Automatic annotation (TrEMBL):
This is RNA polymerase sigma factor SigM. It comes from Nocardia stercoris. GO terms for biological process: DNA-templated transcription initiation. Residues 1-18 have a biased composition (Low complexity). Residues 141-191 form the RNA polymerase sigma factor 70 region 4 type domain. The gene is sigM.
């Protein structure tokens, strides 16, 4: 968990006062990076990479997509660090960027799981009709997920895909537990409505 420390108001001149980067807080490292320290972000990257990569693995179709999503997210965080407002912990800020990067990559590569599925199961006796049905359901759910507002989508990914408790999700997202519950509830309702309309169209066809 992130060590507590000064907020982003220290960014002016923070690079010259950073001292030992390994003992600096996440906020101090990010402020130093914004101030021009060439090594601060690398320390922040090493500190949180394992957690962020595990998050990406649970939110991606493949390890390759997970690694690419983490790279995309950290590049975005590196470039946009000045926009960090300090209203959430740095780890939660990075968490949100990684989740959005994973979801964006899934959206761009929706057709890829079909190829991977058939390649991996070509020598297996699994029923093709069942596999196709599962794949179609997964793609429909993915499309419905992308229609959700980003805050509801992030809450559902944390609770449903990462299997975090509401308290853990609230800490990572930087919002109260009640907000996580509300976002998950609204997101589930919208997903059910969207998936229900898809099933109705399928029954009429």
């Amino acid at each position: 968990m992130e060590r507590t420390g000064a907020g982003p108001s220290r960014s002016a001149g923070a690079g010259s006062r950073l001292g030992d980067p390994d003992t600096a807080t996440d906020r101090e490292l990010l402020a130093a990076h914004v101030a021009g320290d060439p090594h601060a972000f690398a320390v922040l990257f090493r500190r949180h990479y394992h957690h962020l990569y595990q998050l990406a693995l649970r939110s991606s179709y493949s390890p390759e997509d997970a690694a690419d999503s983490v790279q995309d997210a950290l590049l975005s965080a590196h470039r946009n660090a000045a926009g960090y407002r300090g209203d959430a912990e740095v780890r939660s800020w990075l968490h949100r960027i990684v989740v959005n990067a994973c979801l964006d990559r899934i959206r761009r590569n929706r057709a890829r799981p079909a190829t991977s599925l058939f390649e991996e199961s070509i020598d297996e006796p699994a029923a093709p009709r069942d596999e196709m049905s599962e794949l179609e359901t997964k793609l429909v759910v993915d499309r419905a997920l992308f229609d959700l507002p980003p805050d509801q989508r992030a809450a559902l990914v944390a609770v449903e895909m990462e299997q975090l408790s509401v308290a853990e999700a609230a800490e990572l997202l930087g919002v109260p537990p009640g907000t996580v519950k509300s976002r998950c509830s609204r997101g589930r309702k919208r997903l059910q409505e969207r998936l229900g309309s898809v099933r109705d169209r399928g029954n009429r066809s």
